[in-house]
Amino acid sequence: MYGLVHRALQTFAQDTYGDALWRAAVAKAGLDVVEFEAMLTYSDEMFDAVLDSLSDQLSRDRALVLEDLGSYLVTHPNTNVVRRLLRFGGFSFVDFVLSLDDLQDRTKLAFPDLHLPRLEVEPHLDGAFGIWVFSEREGFGAVLQGVLRAMADDYGALVMLELRHATRYDRSFEHLTVELFETDFAAGRSFDLSMGHAAK
């Protein structure tokens, strides 16, 4: 697994809960590495071990930790590059959701070695959306749920999200339902595509 993913989990834990808790989680996981390097490659097992340990330290289900990680990637000042990458998906929350079909390709432009799962967005007649997460690994759906929740706030939209498993191509995949109640529920965060920076 690309080290950028491990590094994201590390900075999320340190920025949100402090370095001491992160180090305790790493120690409990039995890892020799405390600082992950974004450009290196680490095993999936290392990520799972430290995620499970971090979940135990926080007394939270790992899916909730991953959802919080997704929100962190959008909202924290240290990860503003992720927010900018996502906001290029469109001028409204609906545009953004529809652009998720292309997220894999857009991400490769910025991070060529980062392999995100393929997403497939299905618009529903009632204004809702279904998002399929085609991944061999469990967990990206929870991260995406956190990203969507934070991006809805970013755009000022009111949504309800539901993550479950559903069958597609005779296999079980993570599936997100996005119900959009109001596109202009609140003032979103300002964002300027032309100036090359996001207003804080």
Provide tags for this entry:
single chain; alpha+beta; H-NOX domain; four-stranded antiparallel sheet; 8 helices; globular
Q: What features would you describe in this structure?
A:
The protein is α+β, with helices and mostly antiparallel strands and 200 residues long. The chain has 2 domains: 3-60; 72-182, Alpha-Beta Complex (H-NOX domain). Helices cover 46% and strands 18% of the residues. A 4-stranded antiparallel beta sheet has the order 1-2-4-3. A hairpin with a 5-residue loop joins strand 1 and strand 2. Residues 195-200 have low confidence and may be disordered.
CATH fold description of the largest domain: H-NOX domain
The strand line-up of the biggest sheet is 1-2-4-3
Distance between the termini: 32 Å
The SS-based structural class is alpha+beta
Query: Can you tell me the CATH class of the largest domain?
Result: Alpha Beta
Number of domains: 2
Major sheet description = 4 strands, antiparallel
Gross geometry: globular
Percentage of residues assigned to helices? 40-55%
Q: How many DSSP helices?
A: 8
Going by CATH, what is the homologous superfamily of the largest domain? H-NOX domain
Instruction: Tell me the total number of β-strands.
Output: 4
The SSE string, one letter per element, is HHHHHHHEEHEE
Q: Nearest-angstrom radius of gyration?
A: 17 Å
The portion of residues forming beta strands comes to 15-25%
